[in-house]
Design brief:
The complex is a heterodimer of chains A (248) and B (263). By secondary structure, chain A is of the alpha/beta class. The radius of gyration of chain A is 18 Å and the shape is globular. Chain B has 263 residues and is mostly helical. Chain B is 81% helix and 0% strand. Chain B is built from ten helices and no strands. Chain B is globular. The relative contact order of chain B is 0.13. The chains are: A alpha/beta (248), B mainly alpha (263). At the A-B interface, helix 2 and helix 3 of A face helix 1 and helix 3 of B.
Chain lengths: 248, 263
């Protein structure tokens, strides 16, 4: 597998009323083409900051992000077309129906009207949204909103999809269903960056896991290797040990 | 793939299409509301106030000032929606990840405000002018100049209201923006009287009112619809409103950078 994204020494500092806080403190990592890369950490670890910088929502204070070897900041607009972003907040267009949300997503990414029709039909089938096509967003359940969000991010066939806490607040059976759909995205060859604080989710879905703590990378490994190296059966125990060690 | 100017225009136009689709669904209510206001204003200014002994020469200027309030309220409603989106839904975060520079995104917000303002308030002005007829005291209407004043006024108001939405938290906006920002602008913005009336009463007050951009919106509209030399010249109003638009464009840019930290 080839690297698709390389993050080099990324720093993000927020300053409020003269007080500075490093939300990311020299993060470096490489994400390979076609993998599910899990970003794991407690609240405030820097997961959402990192994913929103990778989604180009915010600029880093310093550091570099390379997409297929080229800085994303050299041609930001081109990189954005290769990216689908599902933010933590379900920011769907409340004024449009499910189908209209997807149609407009296609237009924003310059697909032809024929291609839009085809993609909308295909994605609504794949994500089991067809019966909700004419529904207002406000009338959908949390799980269905999340599916629309994923479908919207996939409309323009991005190479990378960033899923920021995709299953927060969902019922267990809906979570399981979404997990399967995320696995299906990987089968399509899409690289997935998954931000989560659910250890079971990270373990089930991720090819490799990056554990973040206070803006720093503690470890990047596959779950199996982490378990072998630490001689522990549970990812939760490994996570607690690593974060405790980092505190000391 | 190069992101050309044409591609940006296509994304810009897709955003406009989306907003126009929403406007279309709201249009009946918006136009009905605006016509109700015009009807009531025509009744008040055309018949009741003159019957109560208000000087006929003030009827036209007051009516046009009140019509500008409709535009002002529209700006407030749009900025309240933006402020709420920033606090809760964050649809703007989705838009900010398009292959479109952020200036284009805010230009689209502004364009939509201008379109909405024209669609809703220009028919109201035309109907009101027709209903009130001679009671407005029209000397000579200059429609082309009116549209220029109106266009620049809507751009200024769009920038002002976007700035207020971006520059303050939803809670602050909800609780304080009307009494602390918008009410002083309206009450001391020559909406309910002409600038010359204020100046002849207290020259110092006249000078203070010249600092308020609303003065130039109201006086510019009066000067182009009623005509004569009793109002501030429309050309001066246009120049000052362009100046204020530049100031608020700069402030908006700073507020967006601080609030959204966009690329």
């Amino acid at each position: 597998m080839k690297p698709i994204l390389e993050v080099k020494n990324l720093v993000k500092t927020y300053t409020d009323k003269g007080v500075s806080l490093n939300a990311l403190d020299g993060v470096s990592l490489t994400i390979m083409e076609g993998e599910i890369f899990g970003l794991l950490g407690v609240n405030g670890a820097g997961k959402t900051t990192l994913s929103s910088i990778l989604a180009t929502l915010h600029p880093p204070t310093s550091g570099e992000v390379l997409f297929r070897g080229e800085s994303i900041y050299k041609d930001l607009m081109h990189y954005r077309r290769s990216l689908g972003f599902c933010p933590q907040k379900q920011n769907l267009d409340q004024f449009l129906t499910v189908e209209e949300n997807l149609v407009f997503a296609g237009r924003y990414y310059l697909l032809s009207e024929d291609e839009i029709k085809r993609r909308v039909k295909q994605l609504m089938e794949e994500l089991e949204l067809t019966r909700y096509a004419a529904f207002e967003i406000s009338s959908l359940s949390g799980g269905n909103k999340q599916r629309v969000l994923i479908a919207r991010a996939l409309m323009h066939k991005p190479a990378i999809v960033i899923l920021d806490e995709p299953t927060v607040g969902l019922d267990p059976d809906i979570r399981r269903k979404l997990w399967q759909q995320i696995k299906d995205l990987k089968k399509m060859g899409i690289t997935i960056i998954l931000t989560t604080h659910y250890l079971d989710e990270a373990e089930y879905l991720s090819d490799r896991i990056c554990i973040l703590n206070k803006g720093k990378v503690l470890k990047i490994e596959s779950v199996e290797k982490l378990k072998r190296d630490h001689d522990m059966a549970s990812l939760e125990d490994i996570f607690i040990r690593l974060t405790k060690e980092a505190e000391q | 793939m190069q992101n050309t100017f044409i591609d940006r225009m296509k994304i810009f136009s897709a955003l406009l299409q989306r907003d126009l689709k929403i406007l279309k669904s709201e249009l009946f209510d918006l136009v009905t509301n605006s016509l109700i206001q015009v009807g009531l204003n025509a009744l008040l200014f055309g018949y009741l106030l003159p019957a109560m002994g208000i000087k006929p020469s003030i009827i036209g200027p007051m009516y046009l000032g009140i019509v500008m309030l409709v535009l002002y309220e529209l700006g407030f409603a749009i900025s309240a929606n933006t402020s709420m989106d920033l606090a809760y839904n964050r649809f703007i975060d989705y838009q900010a990840t398009f292959s479109l520079p952020k200036r284009w995104l805010f230009a689209e917000y502004l364009s939509m405000f201008v379109i909405k303002a024209f669609v809703i308030s220009v028919p109201a002005i035309l109907v009101g002018t027709k209903l009130l007829g001679n009671r407005l005291g029209i000397i000579q209407t200059n429609w082309p100049l009116f549209f220029i004043v109106y266009f620049i006024a809507t751009i200024f108001l769009g920038l002002l209201f976007l700035y207020l939405a971006m520059g303050s938290s939803f809670e602050w906006f909800n609780d304080n923006v009307w009494p602390r920002c918008l009410s002083p602008i309206v009450n001391f913005g020559c909406v309910f009287f002409t600038w010359k009336m204020a100046y002849s009463l207290y020259p110092f007050l006249g000078y203070i009112l010249l600092l308020n951009p609303m003065t130039y919106i109201c006086e510019g509209v009066r000067s182009t619809i009623i005509g004569g030399n009793q109002f501030i010249d429309a050309r001066i109003c246009i120049a000052v409103l362009i100046g204020w638009s530049i100031v608020f464009g700069f402030l908006l840019n700073k507020a967006v950078t601080k609030r959204l930290d966009l690329m």
